[in-house]
Amino acid sequence: MKFMKTFDKVLSKVEEAILGYSVIIMALVLIGNVVSRSVFNRSWTFAEEVGQALIIIMTFTGIGYGAKKARHICMSAIFDMVPDKVKKIFMYVITSVTSASMFYLAYIALEYVQRVHMLGRLTPALQIPIYLIYAIVPIGFALGGIQYARNFWINVKEKEVYLSTEKAARE
Fold first, then answer.
1. Helix H segments across 40-120?
2. Closest listed residue to residue 67, CA positions, set 21, 107, 101
3. What is the Cα–Cα distance from 135 to 92, expressed in whole angstroms?
4. CB neighbours of 131 closer than 8 A, spacing ≥ 6?
5. What pLDDT, in 10s, does the model give residues 43-63?
6. For residue 158, what are the contacts with CB-CB under 8 A and spacing of at least 6?
7. What's the distance, CA 17 to chain centroid?
8. Angle at 112 between CA 107 and CA 115, to 5 degrees
9. How many CB atoms lie within 10 A of CB 66?
10. Which pTM was predicted?
11. Which residues contact 166 (CB under 8 A, 6 or more apart)?
C-alpha cells in the first residue's frame, strides 16, 4: 500500500511537470514564432509541429491527472439530487464503464501507434518519427483507465462516495 501511495505521488509530480512544461514551451515557441514573423518576416518552420505535438501530449497526459484530481467533465445535475446509496451505485457504474472504455481505447490507440511505426512516417520539419508523439495516446488512456479503476476500488472500500481517489463527493 505504501508503494502505491509513493508511486501515485511520483506519477502526479511527473504528470504535473509534463503538463506545466508543455504549456510553457508551447507558449514560448508559438509567441516566438509570432515575434519572428512580425519582426523578421520569417516564420519558424517547426513551430506548428511543436504546438501540435504539445497539444497531443497535454491532452492525453491530462486524462489520468484529471481523473485523479476529479477535474474531469462531470454532469452532476441528477447525481447531486439523489441519495447517497444511489450515488454509490452511480459511481460503481460510471467508474467501471469508464475504466473499461479507457483500457479499450488504450488498446486501439496502441494498435494505431504500431501501424504508424511500421509506416515510418516522420514530421515534415523536425523529422521526428510520428509514432513517438502518438505513443502518449495509449499511455494516457491506460493511466486514465487505472485512475478510474482506482476510483471504483475506493468506492467499494470506503463508505463515503468518492469522485476520485483524492476527493469525496461531499468535499
1. 47-68, 77-81, 84-119
2. 101
3. 30
4. 113, 114, 116, 117, 121
5. 999 999 999 999 999 999 999
6. none
7. 13
8. 130
9. 17
10. 0.87
11. 68, 69, 70
What cell was used for 138? 495509449
How far apart CA 84 and CA 91 sit, in angstroms, is 10
Rounded distance, CA 136 to CA 60, Å? 6
Dihedral pair phi/psi, residue 129, rounded to 5°: -60, 125
What is the predicted pLDDT for the residue at 81? 85
Taking alpha carbons only, the member of 123, 164, 147 closest to residue 60 is: 147
What phi and psi values does residue 22 have, to the nearest 5 degrees? -65, -45
Question: So where are the chain's domains?
Answer: 2-157
Asked if residue 63 lies in contact with residue 137, where contact means CB atoms within 8 angstroms, the answer is no
C-alpha cell of residue 133 = 508523439
Q: Give me the residues paired with residue 168 across strands.
A: 162
Which range has the top average pLDDT, 74-83, 129-138, 156-165? 129-138
